[in-house]
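hey can u run this one w/ fructose -6-phosphate bound, need the structure tokens asap thx
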Amino acid sequence: MCGIIGIASNRNICKDLLDTLNRLSYRGYDSAGISIVNDKKILERKIKGKISNLENLLELSPIDGALGIGHTRWATHGKPTTLNAHPHTVNNVSLVHNGIIENFQELKNSLLNDNTFYSSDTDTEIISHLIDNELKLGKTPIDSFLNTVKKLSGAFAIVAIFKDFNNLIIAGKRGSPLVIGYNKDEKYICSDVNSLTNLTKKISYLEDGDTVILNSNRVKILDENLKKSKRSIITVSSDRVVSSLSGYDHFMQKEIFEQPDVLSQSLAYYMDFSDFKMNEDKFNIDFSKYEKIVITGCGTAYYAGMVAKYWFENIAKINIEIDYASELRYRNVLLNDKSFSLFISQSGETADTLAALKFCKDNGQTIVSIVNEVESSIAKESDLVLPIFAGPEIGVASTKAFTCQLVALASLALHIAKVKNIISIDEEKNFINELLHVPKLILDVFEKENEIKKLAKIISKSKSAIFIGRGTSYPIALEGALKLKEISYIHAEGIAAGELKHGAIALVDKNMPVIVLAPEDLFYVKTLSNMHEVISRGGNIIFIGSCLDDILENTKLQGINVETSGKLSSPIIMAVPLQLLAYHVAKLLGKDIDQPRNLAKSVTVE
Ligand code: F6R
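ok here u go:
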């Protein structure tokens, strides 16, 4: 993963490097560093931990100059230490890298034979050594760079600067994202567009295989065949507003509470509430001919796909094949012209999802994507992009993107059901009417925050928790468990309620909170039976769902009543109390809610 930035200018750029690293920190925050070329010297500062640590280091020990590179790391090879932080400077070259060099051990062994001294455990340092060796042989920086990149395998982006060249940056894109930014007398290279918009709105996307040679005045691009090439310069219309907390304690909290608004926007894009019809123009592919959808994504996005599986099968009567992107791409799943492939990703940059997309595309599939970042790599590779309108999601744990993904998926299910003549006009109206109530029903969940805090207290004292649900509440149980794990570091498992008795029930005792998800749906009674199986074994029930028969009163259970309004709305609404539950557990435990350990917002390595 990692975020990288390079700036070639004729003014001091240290502050801009740091600002951009802050904007890039969603890509990783294990360590950060910068290198600046000044007066034929490479000045380097790097440190373990977040960018604030680098800011402090630079205050104590400042460096500045007109040409430099910066990096924020999500560790792959080597622990998140200062020595493993980027940039990696070896004599005449300093570079930053995003991605993985798959043959690094082989290359390292060959260099070790030459008595090369290694100061880090990274795969990146090998690149610096290889380039420096070429420079020592008298090769030019560009030849040294190209000769080195030829030896590397994997997916990566590299940005390098050179001690004797105070106005030269060389960069290469092989699978990991890189964009160029343009200003008069100043040029930039960066992992993403949104992190650059504080510096420029004029950008070009690089293509895979591109090598770029840039200085403050000029950008030269060579394609994969080393032919001089042009990449169109576009003006990005809007600046990504650098989100502020607006009075909230954490971005995750803010994003949970934004859901009624962003979901309304998303619903309004896909549906016309004046005559309760789908906005058919948003789906410009003929879906009537397809019999199967191959769905994939990672983490929370994958769980959104799992919820949608039930909708596509029940409402649109279409076959579903679904798997994690990291599995799907290696499974040789059978694809034909009766199926299309559907990719779900908030960032649109997740490496596994993108690789699965390429696999499906190479096999002739029509590609539909559900993304938040509409300028992302996944969006660019798609035949149809269904945006989710969640707005920037800063908290690493996905919240509003998940529920907005569900809205886009529900809309696609309704559209397919309609074009296949499976639902009537009245049924379409009823589904739309049901979805229209979602924002208000989520506001009702917010009213219960104090009760949720009390439930959070119970979980915060536990070592482990189990979430159970049936139907669409099963993937919601998985998502609830994931939220709890990632921000509170409490072990949690989501289990299909009917499956619990086949093994995991052995874990149940009075110390095990079992969060039962029971909205008013087809499975309600069956889920209650599963709950009673847990009660009989002394389990500590936390009930979240519909209190149809005053269940909380009658059984003296702890929990909250959540009102849902039907098949499509139920999982969207049920996700919200679980987000709040995880948030309050993590807050009680004093965890780093917006940037939990070991994680990053955008996972651009396999
Ligand atoms: C969990 C979470 C992750 C992401 C996953 C996919 O809260 O955020 O599981 O859902 O890394 O990311 P995207 O959606 O950007 O492809």
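The longest helix spans residues 400-419. anyway lmk if its weird
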